[in-house]
Amino acid sequence: MNIRGISFVKSAESMDQMPDEKFPEIAFVGRSNVGKSALLNMLARRNALARISSKPGKTQTFNFYCVNEEIYFVDIPGYGYAKVSKKKRAQWQKRIGAYLTGRTTLSLVLHLIDSRHPPTSLDKEIMLLLCENQVQSLLVLTKADKLSGNGITRSIQRVRKDLTAYGMELPIIVTSALGYTGRNELLERIFNAIPTAS
Ligand SMILES: Nc1nc2c(ncn2[C@@H]2O[C@H](COP(=O)(O)OP(=O)(O)OP(=O)(O)O)[C@@H](O)[C@H]2O)c(=O)[nH]1
Ligand SMILES: [Mg+2]
To answer: What is the mean pLDDT of residues 35-55?
Structure first.
């Protein structure tokens, strides 16, 4: 179970520009700057496949990558970025919601949350949306290299508490894009979510 090959396929602004629904998809979802693009690079062991930036709002399109010619990874625009107009932000949120609830080949959502911060109200909206629409998902705590062992334990407890409040129980995976932390566990979950994948 590993990534033998990964290549960029295309960017889409909306559902009608996306590739045909021919492969199962793994979506990277989370607020701006949480580390979605960095996580994709970490899984692929490629430094510059997806563009990352210290400035939030870097990824503004749905970016499709083909893995092992059998799966799509989809790096999606971050939500909650303060420096765009209210109208544009609402538009993005609508597009993300449409994708998460309407894409028939969506197999697994990796919902990323910064391990240093509590889930935001938008994070909680996404949790609910995924739960209500029965989209298979898991929680990824990012940037764990910035926390101590105790800090990580607290972070896991905090997210679990929010999930429990919604009656949800999801795997929580601690990651760091710097140290490859969590890579094997995450890859295993991804490939297990796709029955035919090798
Ligand atoms: N220390 C540390 N920094 C990280 C990690 N993951 C990402 N970063 C940093 O966080 C910033 C944002 O990372 P991105 O991957 O661009 O974030 P994103 O979620 O794709 O952001 P948008 O495209 O704006 O939605 C960059 O400066 C990264 O270097 C991590 O695991 N550890
Ligand atoms: Mg990005």
So the answer is: 92
